[in-house]
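SUBJECT: A protein chain and its fold
Encoding: whole-number codes for local backbone shapes
Chain under study, with its fold:
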Amino acid sequence: MAARILIFLVVGSLIMGSAHRYVWARLVRDAAMPAPWARLATIALVVMFVLLMSSFVAIRGLPRAYGGPLAWVVYTWLGILFFMVVSLGASDLARFVTVRVQGLATLEDPERRQAIARLFAGGATVLGLGLSASGAISVLSPTAVKRVRVVIDRLTGAASGMRIVQISDVHVGPTIGRTFIRGIVDRINALDADVVVITGDLVDGPVERLVEHVAPLADLRAKHGVYFVTGNHEYYAGADAWIAHLATLGVRTLRNERVRIGGEDGFDLAGIDDHSAGSDLPKALAGREADRACVLLAHQPRGIELADELGVDLQLSGHTHGGQMFPWNFAVRLQQPFIAGLHKLARAQIYVSCGTGYWGPPMRVGAPAEITEIELVKAFA
């Protein structure tokens, strides 16, 4: 464990250090920021780098009363840093193109070169801070209810119209707590769902630290129950302890197993452990009636091809956050087959939630948080 933490700190320091230096080089050095602002900006960047790296360890050990405010500061800065690097990268590309179009002679004039550097640095700063502010406003706004209609061939007429409410990737932790969960629970209960499902990454911390913050989940109401499957973050936080605690709140965890929803005229609801922890879909589906509709809960979208082969009608997933902060969604596509929304394969369909909370920076750009109300509808000829 100590070796893993050391490797994380070394690699993290190299990446974060490079990002901070890049911002300093473009905004302070190249733009020739005047004194005393240059010195103040340099000191601020150094302080934020040290605070960011030290907080990754400190937040876990501090009481929430101290760790929470610290997390808000450093994670907000992490989001700003991300958007500043992205904006400055785009600015560098635009400046390169501009200089090429105007001719290399532009670079030979020091005053003109500095003026161009300041112009593009200023534009990148406005863009980076604007995206950060937009992302923060998105997170602080009420979570929207997104309604999705899914047509399923094998669904019975009696089950047609049943509604599943999905939340995913809540990430209760340093910056998401009881107040947020209380609001989510109240909004879900107002929907009067047939089934409520939580598709992983509910928490970012051990039970003893977050027990009071997840307590409102005990008030979740659904006609046929509340179900949960593990995400990768549950295994960082003590999955077995969380599964046991959620059971005391009335939330049943499906661990490579299935239940019947709505009796003979309903559908099967299957759930598997996260891909990183040995999911076993064949076990979850073993012995089921082939003509009965099946909805699968799986934290990660990958694995949908197997679900399609084994006769699953609809898979509900999360994990991706929809990318959370554009343009990170392009990186997510390298690991997952689908990022967000409803998609169809040969038989199976998959809905990937953008998530209900957030991870890391309290910002969302291009991927708003959601509570998803999924209506199952029978396909009529």
